[in-house]
């Protein structure tokens, strides 16, 4: 690939595509090096107004961009690739943000030799706290992975994983924010049950979640150690922990993540 700032086209700029566009702009990526495509004219208008980027049709994006970041739903990917696949000049980097779809799904529909990188990011990209896992697909070199990292690093943390781990990543960190939101929602309800006003319960648990997350990240301690520090003998926390174990919360999480991983596989099968 050529050096210098690459032109990136976000193909199918919905929720995740928009996160990527806004993150790249926040990181200083020049707006004139960003393109977006959308299916509905109203959406195209919205993106152009909000971000000052050019919203073009898919063939124009393929012609003009060096990097094509595909962020359509998995079930729309085959139709999109039927449209643009044969027109992608060899050497352009295709980055897939689609859950479940293996890079081979793209390679089979792109000219031989097209480098493909598979990426799984998550919605905290909106506040530059994403977790993005990056994998090399066919023909992707270290340079292509480094370029993908350059694009996603400003949105949070990045990690390289073998592509065989991407469905697990999807289940864990791709969907992960939803599990934490569900927990916060349930704990807020619990606070209300115990007589706290909703807003107070919400503020208490949100700050507790932030504090716990920063401790997990910055203390270097194992989560068990951190939990033990809050769990005194015959104290209040252990009574709560016993209830969590009685209700199978740990087993529920294991099963939930397996279900998410299986759904990623199913989406890939349905997309074929
Ligand atoms: N949401 C998440 O938390 C998350 C996390 C990680 C990964 N992902 C992955 O990110 C991808 C996008 O998810 P999303 O939640 O952002 O979905 P989304 O909001 O529906 O965005 C997809 C966008 O692509 C547009 N589109 C579909 N076909 C098109 C085509 N042929 N040409 C141009 N635009 C087209 C859609 O248009 P319409 O508006 O007309 O439908 C929509 O705006 C999915 O593959 C998902 O697996 C999502």
Structural domain count: 2
Total beta-strand segments: 8
Report the portion of residues in β strands: 5-15%
Strand neighbour order, sheet with most strands: 3-2-1-4-5-6-7-8
Overall pLDDT, averaged? Answer: 95
Here the CATH topology of the largest domain equals Rossmann fold
Give every kind of bound small molecule, once each: NADP nicotinamide-adenine-dinucleotide phosphate
Sequence-ordered SSE layout with sheet pairings:
Layout (H helix, E strand, L loop, with lengths): L7 E4 L3 H12 L7 E4 L3 H11 L2 E2 L2 H7 L2 E4 L3 H11 L8 E4 L6 H5 L8 E5 L9 E7 L5 H11 L3 E5 L5 H9 L1 H18 L4 H21 L4 H6 L7 H11 L2 H23 L1
Parallel strand pairs: 1-2, 1-4, 2-3, 4-5, 5-6, 7-8
Antiparallel strand pairs: 6-7
Bound molecules: NADP nicotinamide-adenine-dinucleotide phosphate.
NADP nicotinamide-adenine-dinucleotide phosphate binds next to helix 1 and helix 4.
How would you describe this protein?
- It is a single chain.
- By secondary structure, the chain is of the alpha/beta class.
- Helix 4 runs parallel beside helix 12, helix 7 crosses helix 12 and helix 8 crosses helix 9.
- The longest helix has 23 residues.
- The chain folds into two domains: 159 residues, NAD(P)-binding Rossmann-like Domain (Rossmann fold, 3-Layer(aba) Sandwich), CATH 3.40.50; 94 residues, ProC C-terminal domain-like (ProC C-terminal domain-like fold).
- The two termini are 30 Å apart.
- It contains twelve helices and eight strands.
- An eight-stranded mixed sheet has the order 3-2-1-4-5-6-7-8, sandwiched between helices.
- It is elongated, with a radius of gyration of 21 Å.
- NADP nicotinamide-adenine-dinucleotide phosphate binds next to helix 1 and helix 4.
- GO terms for molecular function: pyrroline-5-carboxylate reductase activity.
- InterPro entries: 6-PGluconate_DH-like_C_sf (IPR008927), NAD(P)-bd_dom_sf (IPR036291), P5C_Rdtase_cat_N (IPR028939), P5CR-like_CS (IPR053790), P5CR_dimer (IPR029036), Pyrroline-COOH_reductase (IPR000304).
- One of its GO terms (cellular component) is cytoplasm.
- This is Pyrroline-5-carboxylate reductase.
- Pfam families: F420_oxidored, P5CR_dimer.
